[in-house]
Amino acid sequence: MDKPPTIADVAKLAGVHKATASRALNPRTSGQVNAATARRVLTAAKRLRYQPNTVARSLSTNRSATVGVLVPDLTNPLFPLVVRGIEDALDNQGYTALLANTDNDPERAGAQFDALLSRRVDGFLIATARREDPLLTRAHDQGIAVVLVNRSTDVPLFPAVTGDDAAGIAAAVEHLRDLGHRRLAHLAGPAGMSTGSVRARAFRQHAGECAPVVECASYTEEAGAEAARRLLDEHPGSTGIVAGNDMIALGALQVLRERGLDCPQDVSVIGFNDMRFVDKLVPPLTTVHVPHHRLGAEAAQLLLEQLDRPDRAPKTVTLPLHLVVRGSTAPPR
């Protein structure tokens, strides 16, 4: 069997020194090589079907070029988009994402975190944060590089990339007000998560403290349906519902159908996230658009910067959101 090509083979074919070929093929150092030379090396590597020896590289750099990614629920359609953004950003720098699903279970999150740590990942991108999270406190105490995605903690231990949730809720409330709605309600996400807390606080601020807020046990369709039943039992006159996310909104739409209520003629509903296919619902869902791919890409870039400069202070990147108006909102009867 032929031996696989080596970096020396690539350098020989490209007519450069082995160190030059190595720099040209490493995304972190390719900028140090003349562009024409780099193209020649890449062409030689492609011709020889050369694959870098990541084990040897990790031994020389003390890095594995891998990043652990913890997501709460891969069945939620927004998280594959976040992961795709992470992968696209990491690929550009020669890194690989190792993905773990936690099912929103803190014990499982801890086990997955330790399993990835045992594989010597260079850092973590975590989308499972709770406002008070012992796992993140432990990671901070151990000096592990972490960037939070979509959710944050009350105490800013790590850099974070989030959407401007408060502005998104404000836009939703303003839209319903402009349509003439005065009896607004909020089906909130879990208060133990920053997204649930921030969105509920913003709703109260813009809709008024007297507007009902019903907390959902989780960001799921089932929890949304359960909360919507409680809302309609206790506040049957509500004409506009702002949901904590699109899955909760789906549960609300189900309950409206159960009770013979028309959306949007009887009750308008607004979601949050703008998941794929919500524009195909009947009626199409008005929702706050979150740039999930960009959330992941920005977080990955922040982590790479943190790995290069671990002394940098934590910072938060807040991405702008906007309301997408569709058929699930209309003036009240």
UniProtKB/TrEMBL annotation:
A Pfam family the protein falls into: Peripla_BP_3
Keywords noted in UniProt: DNA-binding, Transcription, Transcription regulation
Domain HTH lacI-type: 5-61
Keyword Electron transport: no
Record's keyword annotation contains DNA-binding: yes
InterPro entries named among the record's database cross-references: HTH_LacI, LacI/GalR-like_sensor, Lambda_DNA-bd_dom_sf, Peripla_BP_I
Protein name (database record): Ribose operon transcriptional repressor RbsR
Organism: Amycolatopsis dongchuanensis
Gene from which the chain derives: rbsR_2
